[in-house]
Amino acid sequence: MKILAFSDLHHSSRHAVKLVEASKDADLVIGAGDFCNMRRGLPEALELLSGIAAPIIAVPGNGESADELTAAAPPNMLVLHGTGTAFEGLNIFGLGYGIPETPFGDWSCDLSEEAALDYLDQCQQADILILHSPPKGIADQTSIGQSVGSVALYEAIERLQPKLAVCGHIHDSWGQTGLIGSTKVVNLGPTTNWFDI
Asked: Which three-class secondary structure string do you get for 76-134?
């Protein structure tokens, strides 16, 4: 299965055009959160992706709530947040938001490590984890070298050992990868990322 994945579109028409074009070859498209900016312009951001005909599975970032993304989602988009689904024989689990809490203020949709654990404990098996935040210590460094990823997400990946875990959120780490056991972890960014699973 050919999977196209991205994160942190942030209402960028330049990136959206490339993603829509690439999606013609995709069996599944994954969106790992932050489609808009600071909870504003979500319908317009999703409209930029309206040329994607393939099924989309997405999680909310810290820039949109799960309810907002679900309400604005086109018919071919399934939103996961602390929930899972089966797609073409793959078990996929998603958890969005900033984990741990960000310093960005009231607009940011965040979860504490404890709240994230409550969601993650419900997942007993996954082939793919779709996350917005990165796990602690992998693809999670800010421009000043601070590691701001989630311990709860690291522990979940370590426990579940999915084939793939994708994330975004930390812009300075876009494109970075790492391993937790045998699981490849990728901080996607808004560019075209291909996976064959």
From this structure: CEEECCCEEEEECCEEEEEECCECCCCCCCCCCCECCHHHHHHHHCCCCCCCEEEECCC
Contact (Cβ atoms closer than 8 angstroms) between residue 141 and residue 147: yes
In three-state secondary structure terms, 69 is helix
Residue 109, both tokens? 């949709």
Question: All domains of the chain, ordered by start, with CATH?
Answer: 2-196 (3.60.21.10)
Taking only the tens place, the pLDDT of each residue in 130-171 is 999 999 999 999 988 888 999 999 999 999 999 999 999 999
Handedness of CA 150, 152, 155, 159 (dihedral sign): negative
3-state secondary structure of 29: strand
- Provide the 3-class DSSP secondary structure of residue 140: coil
Residue with tokens 């709860």: 152
C-alpha 144/C-alpha 181 separation (Å) is: 27
Tell me the whole-structure pTM to 2 decimals.
Answer: 0.96
